[in-house]
Specification:
The protein is α+β, with helices and mostly antiparallel strands. The chain contains 7 helices and 15 strands. Strand 8 and strand 9 form a beta hairpin.
Amino acid sequence: MAGSYEDRDGKIWLDGQLVEWRDAQVHILTHAMHYASSVFEGERCYEGKIFKSREHSERLIKSGQLIDFEIPYTVDEIEAAKKAALDANGLKDAYVRAVAWRGAGNDMGVASRGNPVRMAVAVWAWGNYYGDAKMKGAKLDIAKWRRPDPATAPSQAKAAGLYMIATMSKHAAEDKGCSDAMMFDYRGYIAEATGANIFFVKDGEVHTPTPDAFLNGITRQTVIDMLKEKGIKVNERHIMPEELESFEQCWLTGTAAEVTPVGQIGDYNFEVGALTRDISESYEKLVRS
């Protein structure tokens, strides 16, 4: 499947029904379009099974609650919607995007409790998020935008509004020939990439930022568990920018990114070392087990 995402063959699950891809439309006065009242999940289906599917469905509901709306579907109903979308499109290896948002209704100001909450699930074939960086290591810029104070925005919601600065940062990175950008948090600690969590290796131990100002990703949690099962010490802590010089290896984690090695962040270089390759290969086996 290629071309514009609005002009494709296939089916999208929308508000309880499978509709033609091109007919999955919303009104221009949809509240989410104006006020970012939207949450979503990115998931991958491997050989007919969505990895940690229920955890994603549970987080979708929680994200809605964190931005003050209730998704009108249960976890089981969301699970059924994802299966229906995959089956309707004949896909067993796919990316799965579930999204819920405040639609158009009686309110068109900041407040929108009178508007219906809608939901959709779209699925499509999608390869490596970072292309050939999966093999040789991604090149990252350092973003000027920072992850906000949790008192400013609900950092544990996978909410559309939190990605505005991520889009801006990724565009700036691409303009410099980079795959992505690493972001600091509001205090100046290393946080994450624009849509993936980050890990570092030093002296056989792994270091990863404490997720107290950004999303604690499902893939991040999975990789931490894998490392601990391998007997590797994982240090979740605040990491200062000046520490980048001392790290030997680096990788990113996320549903789209999976486990992607990083070869460069700004002026700092990293090897795609044995531990990075091992955890990447182990993750590939796990998601297909």
